[in-house]
């Protein structure tokens, strides 16, 4: 499909010594269209962050299989020397803790200017104007006067705004945001989520938002990919996920989120815990915690089944109940 | 119902007075004039954002730090006047559960030693075998196999660690437990397990919780009453149902609406507050919330509103609090 900006196919990532590898991501595939906002949701150990770092080729692990294509070009085939060109210009990334990504000894004006310079903004005045424009876009009051400020002079929420300004300064095609609001207070989180939507609207870029919080993803994203124990277990547009989830894990995750408007006698809980990385041997990784599991779940990893035009999920039981076909089969 | 804990006009100022380089601006008023009760057997949730003083308040109640002013009565007794030896014995009745239960514990000690320590200190299980039996029983109560007692903390997942932290807290049969963000670091699917466990244990043993959280959604299931803090003060407190269904303080309303929920079409109802939380070392005059409040008027910049009753059992500190609830969204 020519519409795809980013496409991951069968991506498998291993850590540890090659002779005793720990497989943390297995057979992951999804795509992000131009200008689309996609959420990658999962709990700790789901492999969501590792997957996002692999796109930027920032991981210490090995991508042992699969393709990561940006506009049809496999990023995994590129020499390391080609990467700085792509990072920032084509794909930019923001993280949970902006302080660890900002240089404490450089003014924010210089830091954003440096990113621009790296991507060909030679003219000093143009750089300065663009920096002010970006700081203004992300809602830093008195942007011009803050060019000479250092990161420690900003609050956590303001730092995340500066990070976003720096990330989008070169108008990347894709912004990868890894838990961008997890360290922020809820009222500040609401501001930053709103800002991300505004920036996306104004710059027309795609967003891949990684979060453990389905609420955050529902706020920003059009489509969501659910990961569990290193695999994609469900994918659908956001409304479908929220109203008709098909994978038992997605259902359990949605039911266990505490709601402010709703009170049950007891919170729904998924029994057990996420299996440690690399421990899943055979079959469905969720089967030990699943209320629906049958003997086949222990024997064979379910493929993705297509439940509707935008929805697919990897579950033998719900697929059989709905009588749906395997995704990728001729529709 | 009787008050197990009664805090009156409790205050804590950090930062030394005097000294060569210190001025009044170095002082942080972390908790300011806080008055509230915790009833026997109830759960009072204390909710607020970072820097609001909620953790400081929790530690003050246990006298892990000493208040600058005010009194704390525990079962009628003024604990602010107890000597440190008397306080030590009092601690058997009050325990704390941390966000990271092992943050302050040695990684080289086994789970059995960690849970067994308070038993030893308070002489609750004499002899090694008696202690092991009691630890086994506690592990079972918190849903861990008793055989885990010889394991080390690093072999446990986040949820299991919190179970150990809970076992250690309940080991001495306390009547009051401060739970400081006990589920904030846990995955969503594990949070529910821990909250349900805490509720079950309370039902069996009848102790009270002060449950500290930064998010109103998470405490909805466990709280009987909710207190909302902003910049060192309680701005609203009341029975759970009223706080969620008819919040009176604009900050409570914003906090309730701010957290995105995985539901279709909730975005439009959100109140987004402007600006950052002011620094606790430089608290705005008048109503300390006025710099971010969507409905602030002149009076709010000038006069600090008292925490006054707005409904039976519900108090709010707002000049514009009214008996009829403001529907969420209208204030945006």
Automatic annotation (TrEMBL), chain A:
It comes from the Bacteria. Residues 6-254 form the ABC transporter domain. It is a peripheral membrane protein. GO terms for cellular component: plasma membrane. It is found in: Cell inner membrane. Keywords: ATP-binding, Cell membrane, Membrane, Nucleotide-binding, Transport. It holds the Pfam family oligo_HPY. One of its GO terms (biological process) is peptide transport. GO terms for molecular function: ATP binding; ATP hydrolysis activity. InterPro entries: AAA+_ATPase (IPR003593), ABC_Ni/Peptide_Import (IPR050388), ABC_transporter-like_ATP-bd (IPR003439), ABC_transporter-like_CS (IPR017871), Oligopep_ABC_C (IPR013563), P-loop_NTPase (IPR027417). The keyword NADP does not apply. Belongs to the ABC transporter superfamily. NCBIfam families: oligo_HPY (TIGR01727). This is ABC transporter ATP-binding protein.
TrEMBL record, chain B:
GO terms for cellular component: plasma membrane. It is found in: Cell inner membrane. One of its GO terms (biological process) is transmembrane transport. The keyword Cytoplasm does not apply. Keywords: ATP-binding, Nucleotide-binding, Transport. Signal peptide: none annotated. It holds the Pfam family oligo_HPY. It is a peripheral membrane protein. Belongs to the ABC transporter superfamily. This is Dipeptide ABC transporter ATP-binding protein.
């Amino acid at each position: 499909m020519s519409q795809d900006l980013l496409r991951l196919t069968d991506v498998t990532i291993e850590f540890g010594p090659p002779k005793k590898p720990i497989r943390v991501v297995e057979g992951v595939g999804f795509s992000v269209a131009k200008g689309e906002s996609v959420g990658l949701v999962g709990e700790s150990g789901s492999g969501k962050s590792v997957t996002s770092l692999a796109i930027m080729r920032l991981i210490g692990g090995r991508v042992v299989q699969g393709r990561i294509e940006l506009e049809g070009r496999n990023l995994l085939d590129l020499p390391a020397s080609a990467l700085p060109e792509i990072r920032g210009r084509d794909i930019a990334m923001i993280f949970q803790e902006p302080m660890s990504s900002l240089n404490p000894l450089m003014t924010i004006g210089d830091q954003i200017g440096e990113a621009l310079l790296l991507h060909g903004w030679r003219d000093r005045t143009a750089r300065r104007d663009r920096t002010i424009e970006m700081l203004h876009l992300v809602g830093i009051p008195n942007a011009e006067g803050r060019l000479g400020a250092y990161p420690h002079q900003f609050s956590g929420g303001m730092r995340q705004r500066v990070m976003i300004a720096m990330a989008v300064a070169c108008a990347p095609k894709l912004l990868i945001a890894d838990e961008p609001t997890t360290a922020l207070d809820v009222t500040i989180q609401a501001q930053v989520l709103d800002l991300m939507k505004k920036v996306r609207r104004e710059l027309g870029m795609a967003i891949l938002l990684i979060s453990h919080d389905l609420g955050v993803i529902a706020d920003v994203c059009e489509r969501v990919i659910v990961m569990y124990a290193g695999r994609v277990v469900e994918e659908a547009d956001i409304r479908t996920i929220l109203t008709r989830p098909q994978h038992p894990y997605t259902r359990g995750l949605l039911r266990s989120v505490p709601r402010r408007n709703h009170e049950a006698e007891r919170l729904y809980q998924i029994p057990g815990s996420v299996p440690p990385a690399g421990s899943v041997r055979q079959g469905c990784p969720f089967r030990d915690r699943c209320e629906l599991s049958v003997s086949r779940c222990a024997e064979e990893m379910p493929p993705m089944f297509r439940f509707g035009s935008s929805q697919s999920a990897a579950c033998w039981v719900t697929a059989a109940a709905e009588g749906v076909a395997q995704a990728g089969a001729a529709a | 119902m009787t008050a197990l804990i009664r805090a009156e006009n409790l205050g804590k100022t950090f930062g030394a007075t005097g000294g060569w380089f210190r001025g009044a601006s170095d002082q942080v008023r972390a908790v300011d004039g806080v008055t509230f009760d915790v009833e026997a057997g109830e759960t009072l949730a204390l909710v607020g954002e970072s820097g609001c003083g909620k953790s400081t308040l929790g530690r003050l109640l246990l006298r892990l730090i000493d208040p600058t002013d005010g009194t704390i009565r525990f079962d009628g007794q003024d604990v602010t006047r107890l000597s440190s030896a008397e306080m030590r014995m009092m601690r058997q009745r009050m325990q704390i559960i941390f966000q990271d239960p092992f943050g302050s514990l040695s990684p080289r000690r086994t789970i059995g030693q960690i849970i067994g320590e308070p038993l030893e200190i308070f002489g609750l299980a004499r002899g090694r075998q008696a202690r092991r039996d009691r630890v086994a029983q506690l592990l079972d109560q918190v849903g861990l196999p008793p055989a885990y007692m010889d394991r080390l903390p690093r072999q446990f997942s986040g949820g299991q660690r919190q179970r150990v932290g809970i076992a250690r807290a309940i080991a001495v049969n306390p009547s009051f437990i401060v739970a400081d963000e006990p589920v904030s670091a846990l995955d969503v699917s594990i949070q529910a397990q821990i909250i349900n466990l805490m509720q079950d244990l309370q039902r069996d043993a009848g102790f009270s919780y002060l449950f500290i959280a930064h998010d109103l959604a998470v405490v909805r299931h466990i709280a009987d009453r909710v207190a909302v803090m902003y910049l060192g003060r309680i701005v609203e407190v009341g029975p759970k149902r009223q706080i969620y269904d008819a919040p009176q303080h604009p900050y409570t309303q914003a906090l309730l609406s701010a957290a995105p929920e995985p539901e279709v079409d909730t975005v439009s109802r959100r109140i987004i507050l402007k600006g950052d939380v002011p620094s606790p070392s430089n608290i705005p005059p008048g109503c300390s919330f006025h710099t971010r409040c969507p409905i602030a008027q002149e009076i709010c910049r000038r006069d600090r509103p008292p925490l006054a009753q707005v409904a039976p059992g519900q108090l709010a500190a707002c000049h514009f609090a009214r008996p009829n609830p403001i529907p969420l969204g209208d204030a945006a």
